[in-house]
Every structure is written in structure tokens, then in C-alpha cells.
Amino acid sequence: MAIAVPESVGGQATIEQQVDGFMMRVAAQSPGETEFHQAVHEVVESVMPLVQSKKAYRDAKVLDRMVVPENVILFRVVWTDDAGQVQVNRGYRIRMSTVIGPNKGGLRFHPSVTLGLLKFLAFEQVFKNSLTTLPLGGGKGGSDFDPKGRSDSEVMRFCQSFMTELYRYIGPEIDVPAGDIGVGGREIGFLFGQYRRLTHRFNGALTGKNAIWGGSNLRPEATGYGSVYFASDMLSTRGESPKGKIAIVSGSGNVAQYTVEKLTTLGAKVVTMSDSDGTIMDSEGITAEKLAWVMELKNVRRGRIREYADHFKGAKYLAGKRPWGVPCDLAFPSATQNEIDEDSARLLVKNGCFCVSEGANMPSRPEAVDVFLNAKILYGPGKAANAGGVAVSGLEMNQNAGCMRRSRQDVDQQLCTIMHSIHENCVKYGQENGFVNYVRGANCAGFVKVADAMVHQGYM
Ligand code: NDP
User: Fold this and answer.
1) Domains of the chain
2) Which of 32, 109, 134, 381 has the fewest CB atoms inside 10 Å of its own CB, making it the most exposed?
């Protein structure tokens, strides 16, 4: 039976009814894309009052336009494995919005990648990039290719085949991909090599490049460091800091590693890291030396986090578990989407956690977000807290365009300044009777700039 979908809900409809009507249309237009619906719902719930209060936004149908990508590229990626077998994967690039700058956003290589998953990430990226204050549009891409367990040669052949299609659609003024889950320095190297070979150009078409051939200082560190800077800013609103706090971190990839590094430097004790198989808990804390061992394990040997507990006596391995049951003051979800459900959120709050800063994109389910907001803890959503990565990517684009290079200190200072300004903007838009709702703050602050630019530039 066909679902009756209201074309628009106007007149006397409440904000809630308007949100519901809008979401019915989105669901009907993009069936089965559950993460995309989740991400859109969160933004629409925050910004609907703004849209309803401004005729120019309603006339220009800014929300209806924002949920449809400007275009989507879907392509076949064929490569051969080490046994000589032909392998076939799907490649994607979602170009969500170029209204405030070229498309910008990472590439994810993971077996769970689908069009809907990438649409959620691209949609989030539009608001995140707007928050950075830099001229960056939003996009995302990737493949259902799984680099785990593949040799370097297999990853190289896959990346070369992927770029052989993608290179036509990217460039410094068009669309600038970077890394994400499964795409780190090794993959960006292979992708950039093939881009250069096909185009005969050395430019800033990708970010996250190695610092010796065009990358920015501090890009690998930026997302994790930025998430800790954002947490520090949230904590300072309550006269607190990371010093002396117990922190838990999920994941053990790029974002998690540099989150642990910065927290440790600032005097917090980090007691967990994880991967998709389980969590390690080290009540003595993951020190700089132990973190260096983890980095070698994950980035060079490409091993599993359970090996930590074999190597460091006293640490425990919690097979199949996430870190959320471990008592802490601060939590840094830095692995993947929807990794915190309602029960985990309740457990975190019950055990005394009073600050959550999301290094990952949308790691908390909507019910978990409600738990954090109702408990009035400091909760920094990913699109604000993890914007440091794309911010330094923006600085990398800027350095490549100007054939120049910034020092580590300079980039770190700029990263700090950008994270402060994101925090200030969230506070400006998220005040609710003395409490800062960072979800509403981030959504509204990110939305206004994009919506105004859409109005200024006409209907398209
Ligand atoms: P990495 O691939 O470097 O690391 C991902 C980590 O998360 C690994 O430890 C991985 O474990 C774990 N993980 C992945 N999928 C799952 C899952 N389904 N369940 C449990 N654990 C899982 O990725 P990044 O560190 O770059 O990205 C982590 C998060 O941060 C993502 O949400 C990403 O979108 C977000 N992000 C990243 C940015 C960046 O600059 N890299 C910028 C902004 C956001 P395993 O090895 O077992 O797969």
C-alpha cells in the first residue's frame, strides 16, 4: 500500500508535526537508508524552528535541498588479489554540497559501506565543515573493500583501481577527499600516487598526505587532538579540566590514538582502547610508552588490540565488549557510528561520566543522546567535537594552493583557535536556561551559514 506523504506541512502544524512530516518524505525518498534518516532527523529537529522563523529559508526550500546530494558517483572497482583472483568492489563519492566551498570529506574502506551510510556521513560533513569557519563544502566516499588482512600490494592495487575512476571527479577546487575508517596514510599514499600518474599534476586533490610530500604537519593528530580541545572547552564551562580525570576511549585507530596521546599529555589517565573484537582495560593507565607500542601494533604490524593484554601484564582484555561499562569521568567514543546505545549511555552516566566528546561520527544512538541531554552532562556531538580533522585538512589545502608549509606549532595553534570558535558558536546557539545543548548549538550554527549561502546563490 502506498504511504500518503504530505508535500509540505504548514499552517498551524507544531514544530514536531513539521519534523515528522519532513521525515516521512525523506524516508519515502530514500528507503532503507537508516543511518541517513537518523542523521537528518537530528539536524531537522534542531533547525526546524529556525526554518519556520525565516521566510527566505522556507521559500528557498533549503531543508528539502540539503537532504538531496548535488550528485552521486557510483562505480565498479576491479582488482586482482595476491592469488591472481579477480575481485569486484563498489566505489562511491557523494557530493553533498558545494555552496560554501569545494566538496570535502573522507573516504571510508569498510565492508559495511553502502550508499545510505555514506549519505549520512556526507550530510553530517556539510554542517561540520561549515562549523570550522573555513570555505569547505561537504562530501564523503569510499568502498565496501576491507583492507583488513590484505597485503600492502593488494591494498595498492585496489587503491589504484579506485582512483582510476575517481580521478576524473576530484581536484583542489572541485572535491578534495581525505581518510576515514580503513583509509590512513598508506592508502592516501597509493591513491595520491595514482592520481598524480593519471593527471600529470601534483596538487592538493587529496588531504592527509604524508608531510614529506605535501601533507600538513599535525593532520594525523588533528581529529583526536581537536576532540580533546573541544572537551577541555566544555569542561572549562564548569571550572574543570582533563587533568587528573579518568578517561575511556573506544577504537584504536587514527582518532583514538591521538585522543589518548593528547589526554595523557594533559594529565588525564586513559584506561581503555578497543577494536571491533573487544576492549582492553588498563587501570594503571595507557602511558606514552604503552601508546607507542599500540601505534606500532596497529599502524605497522596491523595487529589486534587483544595483544595489548598479553604484552602488558595487569591489563585485561574484555572480549566482544565495548568500553562503556568501565567507570570514568570522561568518555571519547572514537571508533564508529551507533556504538553507544541507550543502556550504555545510562551506564556511563550512572558510573559518574560527566563529559562525552565524540571523535567518531554519530557514535551515539538517538536514545543515548537523549540520556546525555536529560542528565545535563557535557555532551559534544561529533560534528563539532571531531571537526579538527577536516579543519587541518582545510589548512593543508590552503598550504598546497600557496606552495607553503606551516610549522607544527602554527597548525596546533590554528587548530586550537578553530576548536574554540566552534565551541563558542555551539554555546551561542545552544543555550537553554543555563545549560548548553551542544547538539542544537552545533546543528544550528552549522546550518545557518549553509542556508544563507543557498539563499544568496539562488535556486539550484
Ligand atoms: P581507523 O580505521 O583508523 O580506526 C577505526 C577504529 O574503530 C578501529 O579500532 C576499528 O577496529 C574500530 N571500528 C571500526 N568499525 C567498528 C565497529 N563496527 N565496531 C567496533 N569498532 C569498530 O578510523 P579513524 O580512527 O580514522 O575513524 C574513527 C571514527 O572517527 C570514524 O567514525 C570516522 O568517521 C571518525 N572521524 C575520523 C576522522 C579522521 O580524521 N580520520 C575525522 C572525523 C571523524 P577494527 O580494526 O577492528 O575495525
Assistant:
1) 15-66 (no CATH), 71-202 (3.40.50.10860), 222-385 (3.40.50.720)
2) 32
